[in-house]
Design a protein that fits this description.
Mean pLDDT: 88
Low-confidence stretches: 1-12, 272-277
Helix content: 55-70%
Structural class: mainly alpha
Number of helices: 14
Distance between the termini: 31 Å
Strand content: 5-15%
Number of strands: 4
Amino acid sequence: MFVALLALWSCGQTIDCSNPETTIAEAGERSLTCHEAGWAIGWIELLAARPVSPGDRRLAYEALKSSFLADPGGTEAWLESLRVAGAELSLQEGLAGAEARATSVWRASEGRGLLSGASEELRAIQKRTLAVWSSDAEEELALAEADIEGWIRYGSLCREAQQGGALRISVADRVSVYRMIQERFDAGTRSEQIALSSMGPAWKRVPNAWRLASYHQQQTWIQAAPLPPPMTATSLGYAQALFDGDVTAHAAALHQELGPFTVGSRGPMFKPEAPSP
């Protein structure tokens, strides 16, 4: 009975990775630390351009622990491949970087990415975090939820730069905006699809880049971006005008005048953060 109670107590414990060097699994002379397991979570976050939720993060560490105990050597090699791929992708910048990430997101959504051989639970976490809204099998590109949110925030910056006030999109109107961008992606050319999928990672740095830009840089961007009329009806009307416009020129101007921005949203190095305690 004591053994049974101990087993139940162990199953109820969650992995504490507040210290990245904490060992979460041991198999013979091999061990897996939170830092090493974090490469898988970091890869998901790199593609999604947003954090894995706290609940899914805990589940991910548990799944990675199980994977390591089942196959220590194979798990180590796989995590190292994620570290190398993540380091390479995170440093890519501009629209070329956006294209590389959009392709990786598409591969992940099709079950062909670097997590294709991972546990079902880890793949489910990736799917939830990516939240792909549209994909193009012929072009092998996909649009994630973070990209749509990035474009909404970008639209607000555009309107504010024209002294028109921030976009105020209601919950009901937000659904319409999501559909606008989704439909634009579905009907768009390859260059338009890449532009639409470029805003998720870029937006992490855009507000700060705008604040730090000189007046000349700000004005150069305003002149280069094909902005709609500043007071186009409602916020929803302004968003419609923006997304009906030249999204490729918008993305190119943003990277050229205020960037370029890399795919990595936490700086130039691929460093997954430790989870909150």
